[in-house]
Amino acid sequence: MLSPDPPEQLTSSPPTSSSSVGSDGEERNERLSGPARPSPCPPVPSSSIGVLIPTMSRLSVADQPPFVDSDAEGDADVSNLIDMPSNHPSCEGCKKWEERFKALQKEHTSMSKRLSATVADLHTMKKVLEETEACAKAEKSLFEEQTASYEERVENLGERIEVMLKDYQAYRRSTEIELGRLEQERLTAQMEMSEIEEHYRTLLGKRRNAAAEKSAPINLPSGREDLELYALQIREELLSTNVSCEHLRNRLDTEMAINKDKLNEERNKRIQAEKMLRQRTIDANERITELTKALEIAQAAAAAKQSLEKAAERAAADLKRHQVRR
Question: Which residues 6+ apart lie within 8 Å of 158 measured at CB?
Fold first, then answer.
């Protein structure tokens, strides 16, 4: 700020070249015309003007000086300096300096107002950028959590799929082994049935032979003793034939019942195995559909994560650009 005594400052300031030229002219006028006129006021030095105008390098975005108050104080000091009564009469040089000083003062006031508006805009932009960055960080953390949960679910589903595939393969191998065993038993039963049929045909042939023997003429012996002996032989043969026939009939019935039970059991097992395999296939298809949907959800989450990362990178780049501009 300027000192409150402008005449003393003006007199204490070092003389310039213009003042020296003016003093030489006055000496010549004294010699020619008589008494000298009072010397004009020297110009205000630039150092005093620099005191009133603060440099732009001292201002920062973080500082918010009350430019309006400082301008009012500077204007008041300047008005006091201008309106202060002076013992020296005003000259043309002083008027020019005064006009220049007022122009600089107006420029300083307008620049201070512009700087205040710029600082306010910068603070508003900084606040908006901080809010945007906070929102982006929150969204990023939320998407990362969701993506992590989706990835965990996909991993669990993949593990479950592997376990189910292993179980299905093991069950399929065991089912194929069981079907092979049942097929082998079926072939064995067919062979036994063939043997039984052959034995039955043999018995039928023997029966036909017996019937033919029965229908053949009987040559009985003529003696009583021979007749009795022949009758005893026939009776023994008949008894043995009846016993063997009953035994074969029982054996045939037993084997037929066993073979029927085996065939029914094999048929039931085959039907149950087919039903179980069909149900397992349906369940596996449904599970594969669910896993496909989960995989699609995971892929969508991964795509959303990539888009979020790109948006975060763009926001970070914009923030860096704003910081560099600031």
Answer: 291
**Tokens matching residue 23:** 């003093």
For residues 207 and 249, is the Cβ–Cβ distance under 8 A? no
Q: Token pair for residue 265?
A: 């059991």
The secondary structure of the chain in percent helix, strand, coil, rounded to multiples of 5, reads 85, 0, 15
Identity of the residue numbered 122: L
**Gap between the Cα atoms of 165 and 170, Å rounded:** 8
Q: What does DSSP assign to residue 84?
A: S
CA–CA distances in Å: residue 78 to residues 13, 89, 90: 18, 19, 17
Tokens of 248: 């074969």
Q: What is the pLDDT of residues 132-147, one digit of tens each?
A: 888 888 888 888 888 8
* Residue 238, token pair as written in the block: 């008949």
Going by pLDDT thresholds of 50, 70 and 90, the confidence category of residue 243 is very high
Q: Read off the pLDDT of residues 106-127 as tens digits, 9 standing for 90 and up.
A: 999 999 999 999 999 999 998 9
Q: List alpha helices for 6-66, DSSP H.
A: 6-12, 17-33, 46-52
For residues 88 and 7, the answer to whether their CB atoms sit within 8 Å is yes
pLDDT digits (tens, 9 = 90+) for 180-218: 888 888 888 889 888 888 888 888 888 888 888 778 776
Is 40 in contact with 93 (CB distance < 8 Å)? yes
Phi, psi of 89 (to 5 degrees): -75, 150
Q: Is 240 exposed, middle or buried (0-12, 13-18, 19+ CB in 10 A)?
A: exposed
* C-alpha span between 81 and 169 (Å, rounded): 103
pTM score of the predicted model: 0.32
CB 189 within 8 A of CB 259: yes
- What's the number of CA atoms in the CB half-sphere (13 Å) around residue 183? 6
**Residue 326: which residues within 8 A CB-CB, separation 6 or more?**
61, 122, 125, 126
